[in-house]
Amino acid sequence: MNDMASSIVSRAAHIAKDLVHKHDASQVLLTDLHRTGDDEFLITADWTDTSRLTRTEDSRRDAAVLLTETIRQTFPLLAHASYDVPFGHHLLWDEYRYALHLDALNSGGASGRPELYIKCHDIVRRRGRVGGLSLDITVVCDGRRLATAHTRFNIQPPAIYQRLRGAHADSAAMLELARSRPLPPPVSGASEEFRDAVLSPTAERDRWQLRVDTHHPMYFDHPSDHVPGILLLEAAKQAARAARHPRAGVTEAMETVFHRYVELDSPCLVEAQSLPDDQQGRARIMVTMHQDGALCFTALVSVAKTAAP
Q1: CA 271 to CA 210: how far, in whole Å?
Q2: Mean pLDDT across 220-232
């Protein structure tokens, strides 16, 4: 194991940007990493100034974006610093689910210095290297439990990734192609700022085209040969909200599966279907994304029964 896994980084600093796969150091949210047991870790984040990442009017909507980006940054940090995964290997999202504790978020907001208690399990090793693992995560701030999450990701060496991706593996070529095409307009009336709207209208209700702005400062902080998973998660949240418009509601939980990559060289359709409310009275919306006739992503979105004050 790398010695970094048992060290503590000063809270006045942040984890090195390379360890969380960021080019812009100001977007690094993690500050400390400490091993607390066998495959158990405590990671501290800094949410004292997150305006560079989230700018929506409702801080509770920001919380889901902030939580997901914070958790996403733990993947490469733990992989490189705790499991000796070499730089250049590709970390691929398999599944992700989270549940926000809205009462705690309403009382204190998504701010401060939260602590992420992480337990890694179902670890797969291939030829002595970690090839995949699951994370169970509890997010706490000032004694308040803000959220729980579970995720799994797989790790592929560069040679295997190149073989599987073929021509799509060239991120520079994919980005150049995407940027040569006009960006479709955002859904009208969206509460997101123009830059953060990730849906574009179609002729059908509850169906949109995924709007992929490859110049977005968070989603494309570094070159990518496919649509980043965090953008798909945000699209699912926006689709659920658009499908329920004008009824108010905050996404409280989401369960997602990443079936295949969403590519940058063809349109991706996003569809929302309302399901019966769950036993807690929360509205449920199934969001699916298809590209070239293939299912790429599914998300079961649960919306809080009433909008919190």
Answers
A1: 10
A2: 94
Are 138 and 254 in the same domain? no
Task: From 157, 180, 214, give the residue that closes a domain.
Answer: 157
The CA distance from 32 to 46, in Å, is: 9
pLDDT at 104: 86
Q: Region 62-90: what's the mean pLDDT?
A: 92
Find out whether 252 and 303 touch, Cβ atoms under 8 Å: yes
Q: Give the C-alpha separation, 7 to 42, whole Å.
A: 11
> How does residue 105 score in pLDDT terms, banded at 50, 70 and 90?
confident
Q: The CATH number of the domain where 271 resides is what?
A: 3.10.129.10
Residue-wise pLDDT for 55-72, tens only, equals 544 444 568 888 999 999
Determine whether 4 is exposed, middle or buried from the number of CB atoms within 10 Å of its CB (0-12, 13-18, 19+).
middle
Determine phi and psi for 248, rounding to 5 degrees.
-75, 160
The rounded distance, in Å, linking the Cα atoms of 278 and 83 is 39
Please compute Rg for the chain using Cα positions: 19
pLDDT tens figures, 24-53 = 999 999 999 999 999 999 999 999 877 666
Q: For 29, left (φ over 0), alpha (ψ -120 to 50), or beta?
A: alpha
End-to-end Cα distance, the chain: 47
Domain count, the chain: 2
126 and 185 fall within a common domain: no
Strand partners, 145: 140
Across the beta sheet with 144-156, the strand order is: 30-37, 40-45, 115-126, 129-141, 144-156, 90-100, 251-258, 294-303, 283-291, 268-275, 207-210, 199-201
Residue 134 has a pLDDT of 98
Element spanning 268, H or E: strand 268-275
**Are residues 66 and 110 in contact, defined by beta-carbon separation less than 8 angstroms?**
yes
Phi, psi (5° rounding) for residue 239? -65, -40
pLDDT at 308: 44
